[in-house]
Amino acid sequence: MNQCRQWVALLATAGCLGAAAAAPQADFGTRHAAADVRRVADWALDSGDAGQRPFVIVDKRRARLYVFEPGGRLRGDAPVLLGLARGDDTVPGIGDKPLSQVKPQERTTPAGRFQGEIGHNLRGEDVLWVDYDAAVSMHRVLTTNPAERRLQRLASAGVADNRISYGCINVPTAFFETVLMPVSRAGAAPVVYVLPETRPLREVFLNMPPATPALAQASTAARR
């Protein structure tokens, strides 16, 4: 009898371990991504936070955008341009200010979880709104001011020159039209996760569990 009980206990333990190992994880294929990006992608799936929607992750530290299908498979990634000023918060009332009145230190791309929405900007272009009230969206890279060299900034190897916008996320045109918008239009608009650059990850995404020691170490190493 005791031996039977031991076998039952072992089988139950194995079942628990198997369930834990089967937790959903994002499929990055062969693409490299920082530990924080992988952690948020896995959490969005495992917790159900993305709600069976496509989702996108903006890694501000590395100025890169990742687009995922609802099941968590990476559809593609690309460099992006971000707000000129470093910071994770939106200046109150910034969405109502004319661009000419926005100070350089106010040109931030806010961090957080946002429900994306397909719409149009004042130029009549289709965009993916990130925070409509703050006038922050994802759109095709702007080239109206050649002096800003936005195309060259996207193409450069580094990320220091990817800070130029008023807060919007400038996406390479081909990627915007062939990856981001098709995923957005295929079903519900994606959930947008903008990773912080000055605040701790869990302070921005409050429901996220603590990182494992291995992930925390990898994340620290990636920021050096």
Protein model, in words:
It comes from Azohydromonas lata. This is L,D-transpeptidase. Pathway: Cell wall biogenesis; peptidoglycan biosynthesis. InterPro entries: LD_TPept_cat_dom (IPR005490). This protein has about 220 residues and is of the alpha/beta class. It has one domain (about 25-220): Beta Barrel (L,D-transpeptidase catalytic domain-like). Helices cover about 30% and strands about 20% of the residues. The chain is built from 6 helices and 11 strands.
TL;DR of this structure?
By secondary structure, the chain is α/β, with parallel strands linked by helices. 29% of the residues lie in helices and 21% in strands.
| Total domains | 1
Cα-atom radius of gyration:
20 Å
**Inertia-based shape:** globular
Query: Can you tell me the CATH topology?
Result: L,D-transpeptidase catalytic domain-like
Query: How would you name the CATH homologous superfamily?
Result: L,D-transpeptidase catalytic domain-like
Number of helices: 6
Task: Briefly note the structural class of the backbone.
Answer: alpha/beta
Tell me what the CATH architecture is. Beta Barrel
Cα separation of the termini: 57 Å
**Main beta sheet, described?**
5 strands, mixed
Question: Can you give the mean pLDDT?
Answer: 85
CATH class annotation: Mainly Beta
Task: Indicate the proportion of strand residues.
Answer: 15-25%
Widest sheet, order of strands: 3-2-1-11-5
Secondary-structure element series: HHEEEEEEEEHEEHEHH
Low-confidence stretches: 214-224
Number of strands: 11
Helix content: 25-40%
